[in-house]
Design brief:
409 residues; alpha+beta; six-stranded mixed beta barrel; elongated; membrane; MacB_PCD; transmembrane helix; transmembrane transporter activity; cell membrane
Length: 409
C-alpha cells in the first residue's frame, strides 16, 4: 500500500504541471474568464438599472399619488386614453379627501418652442402653483407661477434647466419672450436641474399656468370640459398614502358613476417601484443566466482539456502508480489542477468584469455597480464548476492500470 501524498505536495505538483503547459492552461482558463466576467458585468448592469429606476422614481416627489385617466386594460390595448379626468375632479379631491396635503392638476402637450431663430420640440405643462411643492421641484432663477398668474391666465412661462441652455445659451433669460403655438410668453423663471424619469427629460419641459394652457394651447373638451393629463396628489405623510388612495378611488367612482371597471387609476411611488423592481429583477436574472451559460461552457472546456491531459500523461500516471501512488492521490491531483484553473480563471474574470462595470458607470448614465459578495460568489462558483467538471477526468486518471500505462513507455 502506497504512502499518502501530502496536500501541499499535490498542490505544488499541480502548479508545476500547469506551468509546464502555459498555452494549454491559458486557453483552458479562457472560458472561465469570459464566463465569470460576463456574469459580473451583466449583474452589475442589471443592478444599475434597478438603482437608476429607483433614483428616477424618487424624483417624482415625496408621498405622491398619481391619478391618471384610463385603466390597465386601456393601457394594454394601446388605445388613446379617455379625457374624462377633469379639473372638477381635482378640485373635489382637494376639498373632500382629508388625508391629502396638496393637489396639482396637470395638462401636458408636445409643442414647438421658438426663440428668435431657434426652435425646439418640448413638452409644455399646464400646472398650478401647488405643482412646485407636490412634485418637489425648485426654482433656480426668478419665480414660479402664482395664483394671480393662474387666475388671470397670464402668458408667463418657467423653463427647464436644459431648455434654458438650448434657447438662451446661459444668457439671462428672465424677461425674454418666446413663442408657443403662435402665442408669446414671457420667461419668469428657470427650474433647478431635475433629471429624467423613464426616458422623459424633465429639464427640457416648459411650465405655464393651467388656465393659460386651456385658453391658449389645448382648449376644452366638448364633453368633459377641462380634461387633465393626470393629477399629482401629496399625502399628509407616508402613513396616509394607502388611506388617501382608498378615499380618492371611492370619490372618483362616485363622481364618474362607476359600477364595474374604473375609468381611471390611482398609483403611488411604491406601486411604480414594485412594477419596475419586478421588471428589472427579471432582467437581471435573465442576464445572470446568460452569463451562467458562458460559465458552464467554460466548465466543459476544462473537462475536455483535462481528458486530453489524462491521455497524454498515461506514462506519468502509470509510473507514479508503480512507485506507490494511490488512486486517491492521482484523482486528487487532477481535481486540484482543475480547481486551480477554475479559481485563477474566476479571479481574472472577476477583475475584468469589475473593470467593465466601472467602465459602463463612467461612460454612461447607468449607475452600474457590483457588491463584493457577488464577486466572491462568482469566484466560488467558478471553483465549484472546476471541481464538478474535473471529476470525470480525475476518475479516469485514477483508474488507469499501471501495467497497461507502462507498456506505452
Amino acid at each position: 500500500m502506497g504512502r499518502k501524498v501530502p496536500l501541499n505536495e499535490i498542490f505544488l505538483m499541480s502548479l508545476k504541471t500547469l506551468k509546464a503547459n502555459k498555452l494549454r492552461s491559458s486557453l483552458t482558463m479562457l472560458g472561465i474568464i469570459i464566463g465569470n466576467a460576463s456574469v459580473i458585468t451583466l449583474l452589475g448592469v442589471g443592478k444599475g438599472a434597478q438603482k437608476l429606476a429607483s433614483n428616477q422614481l424618487s424624483n417624482l416627489g415625496a408621498n405622491v399619488l398619481f391619478v391618471v385617466p384610463g385603466n390597465n386594460n386601456t393601457r394594454r390595448r394601446g388605445v388613446a386614453f379617455p379625457r374624462n379626468l377633469t379639473l372638477r375632479d381635482a378640485i373635489a379631491i382637494e376639498q373632500q379627501v382629508p388625508t391629502i396635503e396638496k393637489v396639482a392638476p396637470q395638462i401636458s402637450s408636445s409643442e414647438v418652442i421658438q426663440y428668435e431663430s431657434k426652435s425646439f420640440s418640448s413638452t409644455v405643462l399646464g400646472v398650478t402653483p401647488d405643482f412646485l411643492q407636490v412634485r418637489s421641484f425648485d426654482i433656480a432663477k426668478g419665480r414660479f407661477i402664482s395664483e394671480k398668474d393662474n387666475n388671470g391666465a397670464k402668458n408667463v412661462a418657467i423653463i427647464g434647466h436644459e431648455l434654458n441652455q438650448d434657447l438662451f445659451n446661459n444668457i439671462n433669460s428672465l424677461g425674454k419672450n418666446l413663442r408657443i403655438k403662435d402665442q408669446s410668453f414671457q420667461v419668469i423663471g428657470v427650474m433647478e436641474p431635475k433629471g429624467a424619469v423613464f426616458g422623459s427629460n424633465q429639464d427640457k419641459n416648459i411650465y405655464i399656468p393651467l388656465t393659460t394652457m386651456v385658453n391658449r394651447i389645448t382648449g376644452k373638451d366638448p364633453t368633459y370640459g377641462v380634461s387633465l393629463s393626470f393629477i399629482s396628489i401629496q399625502a399628509k405623510d407616508a402613513r396616509a398614502i394607502n388611506a388617501a388612495k382608498f378615499q380618492i378611488t371611492n370619490l372618483l367612482r362616485q363622481r364618474h358613476n362607476i359600477i364595474k371597471d374604473d375609468d381611471f387609476a390611482v398609483r403611488s411611488q411604491k406601486d411604480a417601484l414594485s412594477i419596475v423592481s419586478a421588471i428589472t429583477g427579471g432582467l437581471t436574472l435573465m442576464l445572470a443566466a446568460i452569463g451562467g451559460i458562458s460559465l458552464f461552457v467554460g466548465g466543459i472546456g476544462i473537462m475536455n482539456i483535462m481528458l486530453v491531459s489524462v491521455s497524454e500523461r498515461t506514462e506519468e500516471i502509470g509510473l507514479r502508480k508503480a512507485i506507490g501512488a494511490r488512486e486517491a492521490d492521482i484523482m486528487l491531483q487532477f481535481l486540484t489542477e482543475a480547481l486551480v484553473l477554475a479559481v485563477i480563471g474566476g479571479i481574472l474574470g472577476a477583475f475584468i468584469g469589475l473593470g467593465s462595470v466601472n467602465g459602463i458607470a463612467l461612460l454612461t448614465s447607468l449607475p452600474a455597480n457590483i457588491e463584493l459578495k457577488v464577486i466572491m460568489f462568482t469566484v466560488s462558483l467558478s471553483g465549484s464548476i472546476g471541481l464538478i467538471f474535473g471529476v470525470l477526468p480525475a476518475k479516469r486518471a485514477s483508474k488507469l492500470d499501471p501495467i497497461v500505462a507502462l507498456r506505452s513507455l
